[in-house]
Each structure stands twice: as C-alpha cells, then as structure tokens.
Specification:
Length: 236
C-alpha cells in the first residue's frame, strides 16, 4: 500500500480543493492503528500505542491534536513518544497553535534546543495523508487552516455530504470531534451513525465512509485491517 503525505504552506483559502504542496510517497502495510486528539495526555497516547501494537498494527497514525494549546509541559516527551514509536502524524489545530506560539517567541519554559526540535517536528507534520482512495486527516481533508479547525460532525450530515461530493476518497479517517462517529454514503444518501464498540465495521465496495475515531484523551482509538476491509473501535 502506497501512501502520500501532503505538505503545504498553510494559508486561509476559500477554495476547499486547493492543490496540495509536496508529495512524498510512503509504504504502509495492511494493519493500521489510528489515534486522534490525545491533547497532551501522554499516558493515554502511550496506552493507545501499546494497545495497537498488541494488535500487531504495522503502522500507527496520529490524526492530529497531539498537543493541547493550553498545556505546555511534557512537550518534548510527547515528541519523543511519537518519534521513538515511528508514529506517522498529521497536524491538528492545537498543534498549529503551539507551532505558531513557538514561532512568535513564546518560551514555554523550554530549553532553546528543545524548542527548536519541537518547532521542526511541528513544521514537518502533513496536513493529511492519502493512499489511493483512503485519506487520513485531522478534520476536513482540504489544504487550508480552516480545514482542520472546522468539524465534520456538527450533529448533521451537511459537512460529510460536502466531503463526499468534493473528494474521491472511499475512506476518510479523522479526529477533531471527540465522539466516535460514522458517516456513510450509500447510493447518494448520507447517514450519521454511532460506531459500535463490539462489532467490527465491514466496508462495502459500493459505499463511502468517514470515520471519526474519537479522542485518545477520552480512551478511544481504532484499528483498520486493510486485507479484511474492516474497522474496529477500541476502548481503553
């Protein structure tokens, strides 16, 4: 499985389908763990990584908001957990706020070398990953700041329907909203459904899906089996 990471100078743009910046193909295997919205909770993030490793995930992806803009301790430890475990990650709105604060000279009680390393880490994060018709993003999979600030789940299917109309993604895995939720496109109809805890979701070829994984800070993560084409919600 080939995956492409999209990086870009982040600007506000009213066009949701702006062309992405640079493409860097990566190789993924069949079992993928997904984590989102750990918000500086290093214990919960580590527990998610361990649970997904126990499930023999070949790759683990963090879907953004690794940090919390209001929590400035353990920043370097969080970066170490991500890098030491070879976690792929996309940028969330809280990560962007931390990045901008550091760029604007906020010391955050960090050594200069740690501050520089955290800045480099945040700058390196992709806005989203794609692999064929599968996408991993913090929220909406478009190339602008607005995309990772605006939630897909607003209690209706409006934003999900827009994504289904404007993209070719068969599967989108994202975070931002902290409640696990499924949006399903079937024959032009979009539905909003809870994700069951005990029953794996089997993907159908004639349907499209948006999976909101849920917050690791609240004990949620997910497991994708590409060979079986199933998704499992995992509670810590």
């Amino acid at each position: 499985m080939m995956i492409e990471a999209y990086f870009s100078a982040i600007v506000f743009d009213p066009c949701p389908t702006c062309p992405p910046g640079l493409k860097h193909p990566l190789t993924l295997q069949g079992r993928i763990g997904v984590i989102a919205d750990s918000h500086g909770n290093i214990a919960s993030m580590t527990d998610c990584i361990q649970r997904l490793t126990d499930r023999r995930a070949d790759t683990i992806i963090h879907l953004g908001d690794i940090f919390d803009s209001e929590i400035h301790h353990n920043l370097m430890n969080i970066v170490d957990v991500i890098t030491d475990n070879n976690i792929l990650a996309v940028k969330g709105n809280n990560d962007y706020q931390i990045e901008k604060s550091l760029e604007n000279g906020h010391p955050m009680d960090l050594d200069p070398s740690d501050r520089q390393r955290i800045r480099q880490f945040l700058h390196s994060l992709a806005l989203y990953f794609t692999s064929g018709n599968v996408c991993f993003a913090h929220s909406r999979p478009f190339d602008s700041i607005r995309a990772f600030y605006e939630p897909i789940d607003t209690g209706s299917t409006e934003q999900a329907a827009r994504i289904f109309r404007h993209t070719d993604h068969h599967l989108l895995f994202c975070g931002h909203s902290h409640l696990p939720m499924l949006f399903r496109w079937r024959a032009g109809i979009v539905t909003r459904e809870p994700i069951p805890e005990q029953t794996p979701l089997v993907f159908q070829k004639n349907e499209k899906y948006i999976i909101i994984v849920g917050s690791a800070d609240k004990g949620e993560c997910g497991f994708i089996d590409r060979e079986k084409m199933v998704y499992e919600r995992i509670r810590l």
